[in-house]
Each structure stands twice: as C-alpha cells, then as structure tokens.
Amino acid sequence: MSVLTAVRDGGIIAQRNFTNVRRTPGALVTGVAQPIIFVLIMAFVFGGALGGAEYREFLIGGLLAQTLTFNSSFTAVYLAKDLHHGIVDRFRVLPMSRVGVVLGRTWSDLITSVISTVVLVLCGLAIGWRATTDPLTVTLTFLLLLLYAFAIAWVGAVVALTARSVEVAQSLGLLWLFPVCFISGAFVSADSLPGPLQGIAAWNPVTAIATASRQGFGNSAPAQFQEAGGWPAENAMLYAILCCLAIIAAFAPIAVSQYRRISKR
Length: 265
Hints:
Elements: H1 3-23, H2 29-50, H3 53-70, H4 72-84, H5 87-92, H6 98-108, H7 110-126, H8 135-163, H9 166-175, H10 177-182, H11 195-203, H12 205-217, H13 231-234, H14 236-263
C-alpha cells in the first residue's frame, strides 16, 4: 500500500482515538496531574537547595523533556489495551494499511502531550518561568517538543507490541523511563555527574531536548551550576532534531514489523 494510504488510514485511526479521549476524559488525568506534581516537587522541595528562582527557570526545560518522555507510556498502555480487547483484530481483517494502525496511535497520543505541555507551561508561568526569546524561536522550540513527543511515542508502540499485555506494557513502559530521564541533563548539568554517567548524560536525547528547550526559551542555568560542554551541548537544537529523527527511524520500522507479525497469526 502507498504512503498516502498509510497516512489516510492513520488519520482515521487517530480520529477514532480522539473520539475515545473525548468520551473518557478521565484518561487524561495523569497527563494533567503529572506535570503539576513534578513542578511542585522539583521547584519547591529541591529547588531551594539548587538555586531558588534561577533553578525554577532552568527546571522547566528539563520537565518538558521528562514529561514528554513519560507520555510514551500512554502509547504503550492504550495500544496494549486495543490488542487485549480485540480492537486490533478487527483492524487486521479490514483492507487498511498495517502502518496506519500504529501511526494513528502515535498521532492521537500527541493530544496528551499537547495538554501536558500546556499544563506545564502554565505551571511554569505561575512560578516565575518566562520565555525571553523572540516569538519565532519560541514557536520553533514548541514544534521541536511536538516532534520529540511523536518520536518517543514510537518507543511506546514497540513496548506495547512486544508485551501485548496491558499489565506487562505498563511495567515495561515505565521501567526504562527513570534511568533515561534522570541520567541526563534534565535537572542538573550533565558535566556534574560522575564517571561514565557524564558521557551517557551528555549524549542522552532527553538532555538534548532539555538543553534545546532552554536555549529556545532563553533560560540560563543557575550561577553555581557547572556549564555542560561538548558538541551535543553546543549544538543542542541540531542534535535534538537528529535524535528525534533517529528514534523514528529506529523504532517505527520495528513497531510496524511487530504489528505485521501479529497480523499474520
């Protein structure tokens, strides 16, 4: 089937998923509550020891990267639910693109990421965060965040299609998130981490998204923070885009291959 067919079918599946979200808005509670909780904890529980108001401004870029990464668990859980409830079995007997089913899931989950981003930005504004760059740069930064949300959703799709059980998908979908998000420069300078963790954090895509967000919004690190160096930090926007494209290139074919393998059973 052609690319246009896959895009068309993906749009239909995404519309179906949007309808489910409108009918069950409670499914978005976690996407709304999680950013608020993390802002309160990181800004006021740890923020005082890490730089106060300066750290709160530095924090938002990291929280945006972390929140969008965590949202991949929504893709994992809801795709696993469709598999478990037999919805995907119905899709398999229809003359539709196999790519479209997974593509529609990743597209529709962008609504969760958009809502989480809006909530997080509003929380940031409430605690004193501001974007100080020009409107075009701010817009491009938000577009980068949406690209990352779409890319990381493919990781969730692979988790769901590998686990094929809601419980296992939920566990696996969260298991990898904590080391990826916290061994990074999301909340501290990557150069402040010990030994080999410093190199891992410097090249971590979460670090790239957090750093690119801070640069795009004009947010600087607290004066006492060790400034990260190296190519990823100096070319954060470019590296962040490359990371997003690499994640899509690596995980989208795996997800589609796994879906096709399921479809042949």
